[in-house]
Amino acid sequence: MDDEPTKGEGKAKGGQARAQKLTKEQRSEIARLGGLAKKAQSSGAKLPEATHKGALKIGELVIPCFVLEDGRRVISGRGMTAAIGMKGRGQGIARISTLKVLNSFENNNLALAIKSPIQFLGGSPKVGVPSDGFEATVLQDLCEALLQARDAGLLKTEAERRYVQFADMLIRSFARVGIIALVDEATGFQADRPADALERYLEKLISKELAAWAKKFPDEFYENIYKLKGWTWPGMGKNRYSVVGNYTRDLVFERIAPGLLPELERKSPKDDKGNRPNKLHQWLTKDIGDPMLAQHLHTLVMFQRLAIANGHGWGRFVKTVDQVLPKKGSTLELPLDFHD
């Protein structure tokens, strides 16, 4: 019986077992929440409490939002990152404040707001545990700063370009909803409209805009290119080698339909810095172009997987594609054997 654990020891072991199953980000988040709770208890300061809460639904996004007792409208930290298309969990909003595209501008108010979130009660399901939030206007300021960075040519990574796409979409949609709300107020219709009318209008707007930037190229397509080339895959968060864009044109757009690539490039001419204002695939039609692209990419990924499984390199993979999916209007390479 001496080896039998006491009641407290059993709980401790159970807690250790659960802790080992948590990811690093989950442990960090739990520690942060615990620290906030202790800080709130020790300071004795009364934190503002949320009197109203809900979720702003935009397409597939669900953004928690609150109204505090002092009247401030607040969006949760995770809601902020989700709104601009930032992936991952944990201290995402803190990562926003480190982006060079934002720190390149003298926007002290925005930087201060991001680094100093509002702590309030009522946002967490755990009683007494404060939550971090940001005034709703901070989201608009953040979007405008990202658009400034785009206009100044400061975007460096694929992730930053994604943030700007979401920011541009949000700014234009907010403006449209704003004018609708002003007309409703001026005409008195705001008293008669359904409670969620503006939210549903916003959701339709942004769902429509999201379609323009919907992800068409699977991550695996690019990862497999790196594998076949023998390169180290850095993940989608890093800039890809510029030559990968040439591979994409060769493997995809030059093989879907004759004359497709020149026409897409004509519709999106490069600016003075060599950048295109749109992704080429954004010009494809939904009823014909998008399904053709999806089918083509599915076939390419299958060939990539087969080549990797058989230990083939890039050259052999491209030859296979040339045989099965030749460039439209090109001459096929004949498989001739030459003998001395």
Name a few traits of the molecule.
about 350 residues; 5 strands; disordered C terminus; 2 domains; alpha+beta
Topology summary:
Layout: H1 7-21, H2 24-43, E1 50-58, E2 61-68, E3 73-76, H3 77-83, H4 92-96, H5 100-103, H6 108-115, E4 118-120, E5 131-135, H7 136-151, H8 158-187, H9 197-212, H10 219-229, H11 243-256, H12 260-267, H13 289-309, H14 314-324
Helix pairs in contact: 7-8, 8-9, 10-13, 11-13, 13-14
Total strands: the figure is: 5
Helix content: 40-55%
Computed CA radius of gyration, to the nearest angstrom:
26 Å
The strands making up the biggest β-sheet line up spatially as: 1-2-3-5-4
Number of helices: 14
SSE order, as H and E?
HHEEEHHHHEEHHHHHHHH
Determine the structural class based on helices, strands and strand pairing.
Answer: alpha+beta
Distance between the termini: 87 Å
| Shape summary | elongated
Mean pLDDT level = 76
User: Mind describing the biggest β-sheet?
Assistant: 5 strands, antiparallel
Binned strand content: 5-15%
